[in-house]
Amino acid sequence: MSAKKNNNDLMDKIVSLCKRRGFVYPSSEIYGGLGSTWDYGPLGAELKRNLKNYWWDAMTNRRDDIEGLDAAILMHPQVWHTSGHVAEFADPLVDCKKCKARFRADKLAEERCPLKPSKSPLECGGELTEARQFNLMFKTFMGPVEDDAHVVFVRPETAQGIYVNFLNVKNSSRQKVPFGIAQVGKAFRNEITPGNFIFRTREFEQMEMQYFVHPSEDEKWFEYWRQERWEWYQSLGINMNKMRWHEHGQEELAHYAKTAYDIEYEYPFGWQELEGIHNRTDFDLSRHMEATGKDLRYSDDRYTEKFIPFIIETSAGVDRTLLTLLVDGYDEVEIKGEKRVFLRLSPRVAPIQVAVFPLVKKDGMPEFAEKVYLQLKKRFKAFYDVSGAIGRRYARMDEAGCPFGITVDGQTLEDETMTVRDRDTMEQKRMKEGELIEYLQRQINS
Ligand code: GAP
Asked: CA quadruple 43, 47, 53, 56: dihedral positive or negative?
């Protein structure tokens, strides 16, 4: 039977599984780690890459109206003045005079003080300073001189790289509105209180798409993209009862947004934002046009007048989506008195899609299994495992999120059929190599 998943120690179990199986490690661990920074291990790197590819494929390869981009992380510093980030991209910060810790003033109920037993700063009795604004952008210096004239910002969102390339992409691709530009890349924010494993970190990746539309059609496309993004998560097999929409109230709206909805997920630490969908109006292009004097207006033979396109933005976090898959997919099942962990990852993104096992290390089974493995490896992320009891090998793959296990046994040597075990139903079917490839392809794409 499935254990109740929403327990308080679920995050600890996930962090420990990630370390044990090589999904995520604390960064610089042999030096004692660096607060809230994480490294992706062999399985994590693969899962992350699959996830980004799955998004990229949905956004670009499967559509004719979206182009890809890979802009630099360091941009002209003026970009961040123009975008409003230098003036507005800040969180309110307070210091506790008792424990000296700093907290986000707007999230005091969620914060925990460093003194033990750890309490919310609202309960610990420490006097808090007046809130002041803390800008979240990291700064560095460009070139060998470290003075104000050489400050550059490390991008806090990938979106601006898209806006400043709007003309370049439009002219080189000859796209007509409505069209989009998609980008996946790192972003950095000097968060006051990062935490909850890879949920809120100072270095993270975003998958952002900016869709340029005629101003009269902004609401239509906003609704279209809300629907598309919802369905994308659904296609990853996430439990949609744990997803919901949150509409931003006026006081919550970012400085650039007319309307915004978050897709939220119910994590073990509560409902939190997974992706933001914003109607950014003509805010960004107008500001960049004003600052640079470049004409960023759009025209084609369908319109009598030039206009500044409105932008509908879909902005998802890679690390946060990966955490969602881990939390959503984590399951504990008791089998014959033993607690077993299953990571129910979608076959579309699982780091190992199929594992091949010879039942025993003799009678020609390893040779047959290896031959099958080499064939599967050409099409799928495959893994070959010959060591240990078959039950243990299945268990290792269940924990790694591998959806299919192929076992070569005594019968294989007689009729060339192998068992195909489905991680989630535990059902086993027998089939030959030819059927196997077709079966796996169908299962992975369905
Ligand atoms: N361009 C719009 C933008 O950046 P955002 O709501 O600030 O909007 C979009 O961020 C997404 O990026 C979030 O929904 C989240 O998934 C991810 N994200 C933002 N800050 C993050 C952080 N500190 N750590 C991990 N992911 C983060």
From this structure: negative
Q: Which CATH architecture has domain 352-445?
A: 3-Layer(aba) Sandwich (3.40)
Ligand 1 atom having least distance to the Cα of 201:
24
- The 10s digit of each residue's pLDDT in 388-414 is 999 999 999 999 999 999 999 999 999
Q: For ligand 1, which residues put their CB under 6 angstroms from it?
A: 157, 159, 189, 191, 200-201, 204, 206, 208, 273-276, 313, 315-317, 319-320
Where in the chain are the domains?
3-82+138-326, 90-135, 352-445
* Peptide bond between residue 117 and the one before it cis (omega within 30 degrees of 0): yes
Residue whose CA is at the smallest distance from ligand 1 atom 16: 317
Residue for token digits 């890979």? Answer: 70
pLDDT for 103 beyond 50: yes
Give residue 260 CA to ligand 1 midpoint distance, Å: 13
State the Cα–Cα distance between residues 114 and 366, nearest whole angstrom.
Answer: 54
* Gap from CA of 384 to ligand 1 centroid (Å): 37
Q: Determine whether domain 3-82+138-326 maps to CATH 3.90.550.10.
A: no
Say which amino acid occupies 52: K
Instruction: Give the burial class of 353: count Cβ atoms within 10 A of its Cβ; 0-12 exposed, 13-18 middle, 19 or more buried.
Output: buried
The separation between CA 178 and the C-alpha centre of its own chain, rounded to angstroms, equals 26
Q: Is the pLDDT of residue 5 over 60?
A: no
Residue-wise pLDDT tens digits, 261-304? 999 999 999 999 999 999 999 999 999 999 999 999 999 999 99
Instruction: Report d(CA 217, CA 310) in Å as an integer.
Output: 9
Answer whether the bond into residue 178 is a cis peptide, omega within 30°: yes
Mutate to test the pocket of ligand 1, among 315, 321, 327 (most ligand atoms within 8 A of CB): 315
